[in-house]
Design a protein that fits this description.
It is built from seven helices and no strands. By secondary structure, the protein is mainly α.
Length: about 170
């Protein structure tokens, strides 16, 4: 087990590859599990007449999330290269953000109401802003890689709120 932990914590290319691979495997496992529930991954939601007209299509949303997960994995790797007193707790914050993002579809798509998605977005936004705040003194680069998550979640939250305003909860 120590060799695996060493690989994830390596500041070199092995650490980079390990972090990227782990996040992408978790993402693939999440998508696979979600497909077993019969969910359409929000494809119907992204093109639903109950969404605001400015809501992007599902394929675009998926591509953005692929980029965001990659940035979160890169943030973990950057923290391997940054000497910090609280390195383990900084990484834990990023990992918590990744987990919250991975489980979001399971409760948001399982409901007919917009409320679970809204509450999940607020939770992810709070975690993302907190992680950015904690990372900033140690690594502006790592914090900057998390910032797009908060921007995207803000846009998604605006879409949920606009859809609720137009068509109800």
């Amino acid at each position: 087990m120590s060799k695996i932990a060493d690989a994830f914590n390596s500041p070199g290319w092995i650490g980079l590859a390990s972090n990227l691979l782990a996040v992408w495997i978790l993402l693939a496992a999440s998508i696979w599990l979600l497909s077993r529930t019969g969910s359409d991954f929000g494809a119907a939601t992204a093109t639903s007449p109950r969404d605001p007209p400015w809501t992007p299509p599902g394929a675009f949303i998926g591509a953005v999330w692929a980029l965001l997960y990659t940035l979160m994995a890169l943030s973990l790797w950057v923290l391997n290269r940054t000497p910090a007193a609280g390195g383990a707790s900084l990484k834990l914050g990023v990992l918590l953000l990744i987990v919250f993002c991975l489980v979001w579809p399971f409760y948001a798509f399982s409901q007919t109401s917009r409320l679970p998605g809204l509450l999940g977005n607020i939770g992810i936004l709070v975690i993302a802003v907190f992680v950015i705040w904690r990372l900033w003194p140690y690594s502006i680069t790592a914090a900057g890689m998390i910032a797009p998550v908060s921007v995207w979640i803000t846009i998604a939250t605006a879409s949920i709120l606009d859809g609720a305003r137009r068509y109800g909860w």
